[in-house]
UniProtKB/TrEMBL annotation:
Entry's localization field: Cell membrane
Superkingdom of this protein's organism: Bacteria
Record membrane topology: Multi-pass membrane protein
Keyword Transport assigned: yes
ABC transmembrane type-1 domain ranges (all copies): 90-270
InterPro entries referenced in this protein's UniProt entry, alphabetically: MetI-like, MetI-like_sf
Protein name, per record: ABC transporter permease
Predominant place of localization: membrane
């Protein structure tokens, strides 16, 4: 029998890989199903609420009105024009949000590691983080604008303020929730604090990191929209202002629903990525000495 006629064997999938795939698929199905059911229930309640007596149909729009805005022509333009307009505005908002999220996440991880490695750093800078958390963002945003002007730096800083605190606190807790047995084992074999951080602390902190990221992703969009609402004429945040001034409440509601829907989608994607990562590391990653 020649080589070309040999039967082909299917690639072997290890048990750990199969379990990881099943875990990810199950977590994804539960997350997506829960969100879909919740969205249908909320949409039904929303539609009922706008039909109650005392509501002004000119201002109060329901989910059917939002769907019509995207799918039907009206006196304000065609459905294609509506979709193109909001898609362009959404691109601006996502760019601003991504910038704030990236800067905030990077700073949070760096500061959390510094807090874990050097307690003195935490004593010095945690009050600043607490200040950023306690001062309302609506009050802080004009100060940032006055200092840095209108542009990407201001957008990044406003998004960073929203993202920084939840990621910083949760990740710091995660990095410090290391099993003492794991630390002792690494120390006995001559490992340094950096080795403990890389081999044990970071894997242990993964669930905390992803939990805070699920909070930070919608928060970054909120921060971007606040920046646009206050200081620019582009993006979904600015669209809310212009639509209100023009009494175009269909666009106002559509922009709000679009921002909410995108936040939910990004939250779901983060959850799926979390499931995939934890399926490899395990929900108790780093807590066992042999991890």
């Amino acid at each position: 029998m020649t080589t070309s006629t040999l039967p082909r064997t299917a690639p072997v999938v290890s048990a750990s890989t199969a379990n990881a795939i099943r875990y990810t698929a199950r977590r994804t199905a539960v997350t997506v199903g829960t969100i879909l059911v919740s969205a249908l229930v909320l949409a039904a309640l929303w539609q009922i609420a706008v039909l109650l007596p005392g509501q002004t149909a000119f201002i109060a729009k329901g989910p059917l009105d939002v769907v019509a805005y995207f799918t039907q022509d009206s006196i304000t333009g065609t459905a294609a024009d509506h979709r193109a307009l909001l898609a362009g505005l959404l691109g601006v908002t996502l760019t601003d949000a991504a910038l704030g999220f990236a800067v905030g996440l990077t700073l949070s991880v760096a500061i959390s590691i510094a807090f874990t490695m050097f307690r003195t750093v935490e004593f010095m800078f945690m009050p600043i983080a607490m200040l950023l958390r306690t001062v309302p963002l609506l009050a802080m945003a004009p100060v940032i604008y006055i200092v840095f002007g209108n542009g990407r730096v201001t957008a990044a800083l406003i998004g960073t303020v929203v993202v920084l605190f939840p990621v910083l606190v949760n990740l710091t807790v995660g990095l410090r929730s290391v099993s003492q047995q794991s630390v002792d084992l690494i120390t006995v074999y001559g490992g340094s604090r950096v080795t403990t951080l890389l081999k044990v602390a970071i894997p242990t902190a993964l669930p905390h990191l992803f939990a805070s990221m699920r909070i930070a992703v919608p928060g970054a969009i909120t921060g971007a929209m606040l920046y646009e609402y206050l200081f620019t004429t582009t993006g979904l945040g600015a669209a809310v202002t212009s639509a209100k001034a023009a009494f175009d409440y269909n666009q106002l509601w559509a922009a709000t629903v679009l921002a909410t829907a995108v936040s939910i989608v990004l939250y779901t994607i983060t959850t799926i990525v979390e499931a995939a990562v934890l399926s490899e590391w395990g929900p108790d990653a780093g807590k066992a000495a042999g991890s």
